[in-house]
Amino acid sequence: MRTQTQAAVFDKEEFKKSVLAHLTDTYAQLPETATTRGWYLAMAKALSDMNIGNLAETEAALIKTNAKKVNYLSMEFLIGRMTGNNLIALDIYSEVSEVIAEFGLNLTDLLEEERDPALGNGGLGRLAACFMDSLVAQELPAVGYGLHYEYGLFRQSFENGEQKEAPDAWKGMEGYPCEVVRPDLTQHVGFWGSVESYQDGQGNILRRWTPSMYVEGRAWDIPVVGYKNNSTYPLRLWECHAPAPFDLARFNEGDYVNAQFSELEAANLTKVLYPNDNHEQGKVLRLMQQYFHCACSVADILRRHLSLGRSLESLSEFETIQLNDTHPTIAIPELMRVLIDDHGFDWDKAWHISRHTFAYTNHTLLPEALETWSAELIGRLLPRHMEIIFEINAQMLEEVKTKWPGDVEKLRKLSLIQEGAPQMVRMANLCVVSSFAVNGVAALHSELVKRDLFPEFNELYPNRLLNVTNGITPRRWLKFCNPALSSLISQHVDGDWAKDLDLLSSMNKLAGNKKFQKQFMAVKKQNKQRLADWVSTNMGITLNTDAIFDVQIKRLHEYKRQHLNLLHILSLYQQLLNDPGFEMHPRVFIFAAKAAPGYALAKDIIFAINRAAETINNDPRIADKLKVVFIPDYRVSLAEIIIPAADVSEQISTAGKEASGTGNMKMALNGALTIGTMDGANVEIREEVGDDNIFIFGMEVEQVMETLANGYHPAEIYHRNPVIKNAIDMLYGETLTPGAPDRLASIADNLVHSDPYLVLADFADYARAHADIDRAYRDQSQWAKMAIINAASVGKFSSDRSMRDYVDTIWHLEAINL
Ligand SMILES: *Cc1c(COP(=O)(O)O)cnc(C)c1O
After folding, report:
1. Shared-domain flag, residues 435 and 292
2. Fewest 10 Å CB contacts: which of 357, 715, 738, 762?
3. Cα–Cα distance between 46 and 92 in angstroms, integer?
4. Model's pTM, two decimal places?
5. What range defines the domain where residue 561 resides?
6. Who contacts 615 (Cβ-Cβ below 8 Å, separation ≥6)?
7. Is 509 within the bounds of a domain?
8. Which secondary structure element, helix H or strand E, spans residue 202, and what is its range?
9. Residues annotated catalytic, as ranges
10. Is the CB of 359 under 6 A from ligand 1?
């Protein structure tokens, strides 16, 4: 076993040679004429060589320890750029920076050449990436299992203010340098076909599935590098291929071109990530992706387990499978099928093993996001799996009948099958019934899961429903993205806070220190300047860094209420124009968000904000008081520039709708003050930072439910409140869209006549909270104090803590220090 850290064995001269060798031998460029991209690729590849070696060594070392592992199954891993982060994890950032400088280049310029692998939509995928980082940082044995999409989340641009989507070819023509293909791990996956009964030698009646189509699953490993330790864990992403290079029979008949058709079709399976966030579409190809992901991953887990000579009876002692939302639910009947049909287990034994292996994380209560699949479709695509689901259902319903005799309503509600035409399989119910633990992602959310989503299951299976509050990795979301604040913190906080984020609490005693306040605000200003430079270069808009930078960055969704923010901006605009006595500190409102391509209202809201930006930014009467910037193509690398520059963090979802949020945590950690509702993890952020250091507004969950239950009439608010009326009337008129007065009526009509997310009901209190912010910012010392307290008090939201909570309450793993 190795005892020295990577930094200790790092040899600068060797690394330099490796970069040069890759530059010429891998990428065919010469030092004299190489492009920045060529240098980046050569450097990333030299680094990747080290990581891939460490991956193999960690795997071999872990085998000897007999350690239990968690397998994190997620359809999305929004990892962002890897190279800079890996340099920090290996603690060789400054050494490599020197090497690059010796070539006459700048490391940060090289790092800018890496395209984000955007293999996720938003929070759920980013969470999976933070969890992998925190698992390996604490040497908790883990494998991440996902899909190797050819195209990640679409690239967004604006044409006359409207969102346009383009494919995201994240690997580039040269291939992605931070990954390695693993032909040794190839799997085969069947689809369609039929199931038949047969008798084995002992006269047992068994079932056999004969698929009518097979594809090949090829594994790519992305090494996840442990922070200042010797461990490197795999993020294993499956890519779909036809089983053979082409159809040999056809090839021999001379039909060379058509012989390759199957390759084209099979490759489509992992071609593209579905761009929906918190919304299910029910497409066959999506279900095929899900099964492909699960079949490859389950087979790989069993391969590892069996290759060590372990019995399948002991599976749950060595492997836990954590399902990130219901997207990998089909792994449950897949494991049952393999145990029963391939390994000859009887139902009860297979069920026992399976039930102790799976755990499930719920991410949403939104009805449109709760997955259901038609039983007819599953029955055709995966006929054996549908039989198994029906059997799991039958046994569960027996339990329900025993517990609540004669209660037909309970049977109807808990059934895995939603009756009707067509019959639909409720994937969340299947997960709850088949898992040993089910968790929500923030305290409030987990309470609502128990109380509103699964109250009967909570009675039927006491202690199964748990909470684990989400977190973010402090390595990427402070140390790497905010070097200025990191170095200030390191001057004042003892110990490696990037390893133990609770250490930041010692900064609380400096919150009232005038000198420290000045330093803290100078860092904030520097980060605002960095963002302003980016905006100036890329968008041609000049920002005043004395203004309050007010940031809302997240997927575009009605429940996240970017339109509440917009209405407030419009009301400020009108006040500045019409009320000579109105005073406000200059404010820059910054947005970034992608809308799902099929979500018309979300796209209209993007257009409306872009039109408002154009109108306000070009109105000479407004001068520098108010600016609106919508930064295109929101992604991890953009978040890394915006978050350190935020003064105000907008977390304004309708109470009860945002399960946790993690953008809220990132910004608080970087010294932004939150304006937010009592929703998701905002509730716990408030607990940590104190009520005086956060701007809470709006209805709480109970009021939201009551308001909606009692018949909500937004039109009354519209007619009663002239500020709201004037702002909405701007959407009806043509101030924002000259020549097209109806272009934004969809948003206005939705708010006046329906407003399902209570934008109008919360508007007045939201505006009040913003006025509080304006007042608070004028006292710079007081503001600095509040910002410092925020950064110092959110250690709880490190994903290291999330991982320890999962370990203590669900996974029961041991850290293995290599
Ligand atoms: C953190 C993050 C999210 C999640 O943001 P929320 O505000 O919690 O919705 C989405 N996308 C990216 C790129 C992120 O970094």
Report:
1. yes
2. 738
3. 13
4. 0.97
5. 543-781
6. 573, 735, 736
7. no
8. none
9. 363, 554-555, 560, 662, 666
10. no
